[in-house]
Amino acid sequence: MTKYIIRRLLYMIPVLLGVSLIIFLLFNVVSGDPTAVLLGKNATARQMADLREQLGLNKSMFLQYIDVVKSAFTFDFGYSWATKQEISQMIKQGSYPSICLSVPAFVISTIISLFISVFVAYYRGKGIDLFVRVVCIAGMSISALAYILFFQWFFAYKLGWFEISGFEEGFPAFVPYIALPAIIWIVLSIGPDVRFFRTVILDEIYQDYVRTARSKGLSEMTILLRHVLRNAMIPIITYVVIQIPSLILGALLLENFFSIPGLGGITLNALNSSDFPVMKAMAILSSVGYIVFGLISDILYTVADPRIKFK
Amino acid sequence: MKQNSLWKDAFFRLAKDKLALFSLVIVLIYFLVALLSSMGLLASTWSQEVGASNLPPSLEHLFGTDIFGRSVLQKVIRGTQVAMSVGVAASIIAIPIGVLLGAFAGYFGGWIDDFVTWLYTTFSSVPNIMLLISITLILGKGIFAVYIALGATSWVTLCRLIRGEVMKHKEREYVQAAGAIGGGHMRKLFRHILPNVSHIIIINTSMQFQIAIKSEVILSYLGLGVQGEPSWGTMIDDAKLELVRGVWWQLAGATVAMFFILLAFNILSDALRDALDPKLKGK
Amino acid sequence: MTLPLLSVKNLVVEFRTGEGIVRAVNNISFDIPHGKTIGIVGESGSGKSVTSLAVMGLLQKPAAVIPQGEIFFNGVDLLKCNENEMRKIRGNQISMIFQEPMTSLNPVFKVGEQIAEAIRIHKNVSNKVAWEKAVHLMNLVGIPNPSASAHKYPHEMSGGQKQRVMIAMAISCDPKLLIADEPTTALDVTIQKQVLELLHKLQQDLNMSMMFITHDLGVIGDIADDVVVMYRSNVVEQNNAQEIFTKAIHPYTKGLLACRPKLGANPRRLLTVSDFMTEEGVEKTVPVERIQIFDKESEVIKTDHVLLEIQNLVTQFPIKGGLFGRTVDHFKAVDDVSFKIKKGQTLGLVGESGCGKTTLGRSILRLVEPSAGKIIYDGKDITHVQHEELRLLRKKMQIIFQDPYSSLNPRMTIADILMEPLNIHNEGGTKAQRYEMARALLEKVGLKASLMNRYPHEFSGGQRQRICIARALMLRPEFVICDESVSALDVSIQAQVLNLLLDLQQEFGLTYVFISHDLSVVNFIADEVGVMYAGKIIEMDKASNIYKSAKTEYTRALLSAIPKGETKQSLASLV
Amino acid sequence: MKSLVLVLTGVLLLSVGCSKDRSFDERELHLISPEKIAGFDPIQISDMYSGNEAGKVYEGLFEFHPYKRPYELIPNLAAALPVVSADGLVYTFTLKKGVKFHDSPAFPDGKGKEFKSDDVIYSIKRLGDPKLQAKGWWLFDDKIAGLNEWRDKNSALEASNYAEEIEGLKKIDDYTVAIKLKRPYPQFLYALAMPQLFIVAKEAVDHFGKEFLNHPVGTGPFVLPVFEQTNRIVYTKNPTFREKFFPSEGEEGDDKLGLLADAGKKIPLVDKIIVDIIVESQPKWLGFQKAKADLLEIPKDNFDSAVVGGKELAPDLKAKGIRLFANAMLDVTFFAFNHDDPTFKANKKLRQAMSLAWDRAEANKLFYNSSAIEAQSVIPPGLGGYRKEFKNPYVKFDLEQAKKLLAEAGYPKGKGLPTITVQTRNETVARQIIEHFAKCQERIGIKVKVGMNTWPELINKVTKRQHQLYTMAWGADYPDAENFLGLLYCPNSSPGSNGSNYCNPDFDALFKTATVLQDSPERSSMYEKMNEMVAIENPWIFGFHRTKFYLSHAWLKNFKFMEFNHTQFQYLNVDLEVKKELSKKF
After folding, report:
1. Which of A163, B81, C432, C456 could form a disulfide with B37 if both were Cys (CB 3.0 to 4.6 A apart)?
2. Cβ within 8 Å, pair B127-A287
3. Domains of chain D and any CATH numbers
4. ipTM value
5. How far is residue B91's CA from residue B85's CA, in Å, rounded to a whole number?
């Protein structure tokens, strides 16, 4: 087990090198001259040349790649071009609101989806099952933007149940601010979640051991909750855990619309101002998150499934 | 007994599912609309004024008019062409890459597998949205960049699925049998294994297709997508501003158009999986 | 006369499928008295499992419908019970064990927990008491070190042990009726014997009734008091076991009895069900005795030419470990094996699962690369030949696999499958000529030429195995390895295929290596038999000698485990 | 698990229920910033919104009078307007005494030090520091004697040497500074009122280092100890703020409007300013209507719901006491041809044809609710050089003439002309404007396509001359037409502000003479001449001078539209009584 974890941790190195390579290719090689971003509309030619030198853009490609790699391993991303802020500081400040929004939304939506999936799995093939499936699929087929525009107008403005936009630090001060975006998040993710969970659960329901459980005289609900769900948890855990790194980024559009000062907003802002260091940092950050949580989900596998033993 | 191949069999199974058949028809209609539009037989006059600015839907203008008095219906149709072309182009790029890499990795194992695994782990580690945004940003916008960006992100899933499936099939006895009668690697891989995992391509494509459509909308919304042509994304972007003025039909047009194709693809990919994946037969 | 424990009356079960309504059980009736074992025998698809599921109330609704019939259990009609009432009966008064011990246990729960759960549902006891009872039951079913084993997960146990766990679970609430659905089919023959003995003993000790479902009359003879024979959804014959074995009435039963190779006799051909009745189920009037049965040793043409010689063959697989997945050790699947086969002869290789017999077969064909030793084919060392030479070799050496379902490419038509070897080796002339060759061979293996353009999934298991045989013979090989080629088939089909193999050997002068776990099959078909154990051939001799005077303990155990096809009185004396 | 959901839902509902009530005890000013704030380092400021925020904590030597129009420069940290030498090159400034920087750990014992002439010199040098690459450098590039030399010298050094004295920046005593210019620079004083020239303290810059941009230490009326990258900035009144009083004069009529009611009171008038950063227009609009903000720049798309018939405030808003402000802006929108491109450079008629084909009235209606003024040339009304009577013959909608000119240009019905891509920002309205433009051009047979860019990308394309046509709006940095005319001055060609790379020797010659003159009728007439001369050349397709609309709640006092509004907020006031009363309606 320890050996497996060490091996997986070591495997992060080539993947991180690869991620750095992609990011390097995208932002350092293919993309253009950043000096205009940094100097604004009244820049002089001289100033631009000086700045290129200062930013190390005249360095060899290899050295520039090494810089990207270095930042991937040290998390030292330098300073933003657009705002001159220290990026690690921006990330630190931005992650709190993002987490306040994404974690509760994610946890609640996962739990609700699980409940619904068990419920429809119990009534599989019946009208209610079909109904829930169609609602899920229909819900998935509407643009997220439509939800945001309508919910904000209706629930926050018309009914006044929630704050229209903004954010405050500290619990429970942030709750009225994140509640509505969180609800939209939940509405958006229940569809795909239920669809996936339901499939997984139904895959299990036709296994032989379920027949054994029935022949023991267990009730259908007990079978679902005790036997089936426990087995279905294995793919569900992967599905769920692998989503966690994307939570850090938050939801770009949601954060923007609700003025939540999270990482999603930072990313969108960086995109709009061609702020490459910030975009690089975000890409590296979420890649590392993805890799780490990939490992965690694999380790959780062993907890959920005694059959898997890592050597 | 009818003489059926598995494909025909699957089709008949699919045909029995009314909802799926209906979805298939919808998908085909969208393709037809897109095709007619690209040949200039439909909505070729989308850029012309047909009435006053922001007319609500009426018999004359079914979906109303936009800010310039252009027909929203025609824009929706034109947007359909863009959306479908994005799906098709992304598939054309993603399928060969995904299938070949996945097949070679799964079949040969060893360093090829190590390399391909590393490649797609790396690609899937960078969040899709970042990759999409960066690629379109860097390739300089426009529909071509969207094609490339979506192609570059959607081969990963296919590659991983094909690799896993090929690994499974490689051990099957029919492949061993092909080896025993003297078939070489390429024959085993392309003549025997690939046809047997091809349903994965179909199912995955139908899922990737809708992801492509959704991504195009988001990219266009962010201003990174299609330029100078109506797309559902730019229409929704327009609508964001018009909505408070009570101009809802542009949003409605794009949303409804998007809704039906996504709904159809969603149902269809479910049904395809049921029909093509023998594991799920009879459930 | 007391009422029987279970009484099935005029039961009909139908399935609604996309193609229409399929009748799986057609108006059957039988009784199970208290304390007796009823064997239900029939081939796959005959409706025997559906019957048992109907008794348990486990049929998948709404696909399955019971339009007619009654199932009385202790005087209660189970078909009229609602789900709650059924649940109280299931696992408590009627319990069931299934064919596949590998998948029938929940992989994520400890086995002790799974047994205890059954106890907890029906008996109002604490967790602790239930667990202790579970350990006790595990002891009862003969699982070594039960208190430790109860903490194991299913994957940590062998197939036999898992089936014992299933049994422990089934008897945990002292049921009145135990339904065993092919409980030993997936097990090795020695384990099968132990499980049979265990079931028999438990049935006696606990005074249960048992419904024993199997496709193998041989097995049923060992255990059942009465036998119900099912054929195509109908009960065709039911009687007490003694009667069935000695004077079967229905031609199907007769066929079943006759088609199983017996260790004692060594006939040239096996009788099959089709010798006794027509496709339509009408008894054939030709007296069975008139079909010739030779002692094969008397007439087979033998040469002294050694076609294949294996010298000290070793095939090993690396065991990975360490931080970077280095190879830390090797597992020797085939360990220093040597033998010779003369042209036209059949070498049987017998052994239980995991003994290395399949790897040996594939090593000979170089489908798996051997690690050491030599393979000499027709005087030529082929251990290391490569590319073109290896390809040419493929024309001479062929293999027929075990699973007829997975060994045909489902996306190719039969014509494509059969012509492919010719295409690869560019033989057989034009496409039309190749097609003609394929057609001819298909007819030779007993299938109609009109089936050429069909896909594999449209065929039954036996038919598929014939196609596999045809494919193997397309290139006119001299040497064929049959790797468990009949193991997945029903007994009656198995006999047909064995006969076919013999006929083909005769006609084409083939040399076979016949690999099987079933000693009686090997004994029937092979001239010489090698017994494999842990990668080695521990005994090798003429088939008849092995049977008559086995030298090793293991071989003798194998022999004694073979169901005798006799009644249970004989078994009772053994216990 | 079920209970977990219950608890979570409970917490959610509970906290929603007890969302905070508004307080009516403190004078709080609630504002909205529609864009992210980059930081508080004055020299790096390049956008109006960051400038507005910096203006709450920092001050410059001068500011614009909050009420007088036309815009009048008044001393802020300077004690009076400077004394200018006869040659117009040496400016001598006297500074206010007793002005204290905010209390900050940057200073010994944490008490804010006094503002002196060293701080002025330091702040100007800092703008020229080559290590910092200030975005505002263009203001003083090649303007102050010795500053460029100092900059060049230091770019080779490890760290810039501030100790070195510069010829043009002379400290006479603690409260007197003399600045020597290289050549006449009439806009010099305007520059000193801009955020880039806000005065900073060396101690604070050294103490906070790279983090200086998040720790504004100024002399201004409000304090903000730390700026965090959140969407809410809260300023509190500066307790050590000097004695500064509300002006008693304004434009004619201001007193009638009640704008001067607070005359003579010590400013700032509010205790707290809360700025919410809201980018999307829907939440901005909804928030204002819920009284979450006191003042709102109307998002264009909400115009119809706020303003009926393009003039009157909607009755439901009026009922709540909301007021509407409409003011012409000092700006111009335009489509600039790239004169590097021979297609456009040599072909005046093509440019004119395109200008004539554009239906400006329709565009005005669609995008500006008919509130904008059609631009005849570069200079907006309100600046010297603008002549109301002047009409550009090519700024009208005349398809016939357009077609004629296009044919004369060598492209009859657009034949032979490639598709023209217009580069713009990736914003909805920007895209729609070009779509409309394209629709108009199609009528005479010219094909036009939209190219969307992020702001930096657009700048990049323009500075690298990789465009055919781009569209932009130019807002005044200071109230001098030079700021607009410079956009067509040949030496300013890319990467300078003349993104069209237009060159006209006559124009350039006039520009050279006029721009070194102080404001005078003579200069204005020269500006007029230039403005009209360039108009008929159509180096651009002139667009509009736009109008800005604000809504304010009744309790917001003293608000008057201001083009250069960095320092405006200290003059605003909140009437708590009115607020309390009206709040019932929300």
Report:
1. B81
2. yes
3. 37-218 (3.90.76.10), 331-545 (3.10.105.10)
4. 0.78
5. 10
